[in-house]
Amino acid sequence: MTIYSYRMITFAFCGVSAEEIFYNSNHGSSAAEIAALVSAAKEASANVQSAQHHVHLAKEEVLTRQKIASEKQAAAALAVQHTQVAAAVQRQRSNAAANALVLAQQRFAHAKSIVAEHQRIASEKEAAAAAAIHHAANVAAYHIRKNEKNTAKIAALNSLATNTFNHVATATDTTLSGTSSAIQANIDPWYFSQAAAHLPVWG
Prior knowledge:
The protein is mostly helical. It has a domain at 3-128. It is built from 4 helices and no strands. Helix 3 (31-187) crosses helix 4 (189-197). The longest helix is centred in the middle third of the chain and has 157 residues, at 31-187. It is rod-shaped.
């Protein structure tokens, strides 16, 4: 490649056509025109570099956004996984709590049945005790009445015995007194006359 061809390619890349270069070279462009062309070429090259820089920045932004999106997607997937795990744990805990509740209800029902059975037994025992107390009270009352009757009978017998004893004693005293008087009369005529003096006078 000749220097001329390289320059043509350079100017073409900078936005200057080969025809324009050829025309200016054949017609003898002035220094000012050539400087303007060179300036235009530099400006065009600067625009290309600026555009390439913007492309690079845009590419970096795309890569950055892609990385962020990938991270967000990974985080979302991990969160979903964690959510599923957490949901599974919560379901397991909920099931365990439900089973514990059922067991507690069963224990409560069993305890209530035991209490009811003990209450039934206690009621039967209390009824039996009340019946025994009532029977004992009736028996005691019967014995008290019987004892009272026996006491009355004994008192009556004692009274009868006392009266009989008193009567017998009186009769005995009378008999003994008469006997003594008779004996005394046989012994002492004066005593007999004194006793006769006290006899009632029959009309």
